[in-house]
Sequence to fold (130 residues):
Amino acid sequence: MKKIGAFLVVVLAFFFAAKALPAQEAVSRSASWTTSTTQGQGQPRGYVQYQNYCSMCHGEGVGKPGTLALQAKYKGAMPALLDKRTDLTQPLIKTYVRNGLSIMPILRKTEISDADLDAIAAYLTRNNKP
Ligand code: HEC
Fold:
């Protein structure tokens, strides 16, 4: 009788584990879907890709290495946030992204496509004076 009880416990454990697995997968899939789509709904491609590839370092908030480095570099003479700048040119942005700059890493074409980088450069220069 004890053996049957133990057997049932094992079968039930497998049953619930099997049920829980697809649920976990669904949660992680919806999480990655959220960052690239809902957050950027109705926003231009350059904005969305900037959030995906650059804002973890150049965004607002504590501990963003890009924002901190540019704060130290310009000491308020220039906005520390890249998306508030109006002096950057598209070729300059693309050069920095493809070649890196001090601790900013190189981003290759396999990591960020030319089309996405074009869109980011257009987004970051949207407020430049003609
Ligand atoms: C891993 C963090 C990181 C990521 C990701 C990153 N950057 Fe940077 N970026 C930096 C840091 C740090 C600097 C400052 C380098 C320095 O001069 O010391 C910088 C500098 C720059 C500069 C130069 C600004 C100036 O006035 O000197 C540009 C332009 C730039 N980044 C664009 C981008 C773009 C566009 C992306 C996304 C495609 C990006 N970066 C992604 C960390 C990052």
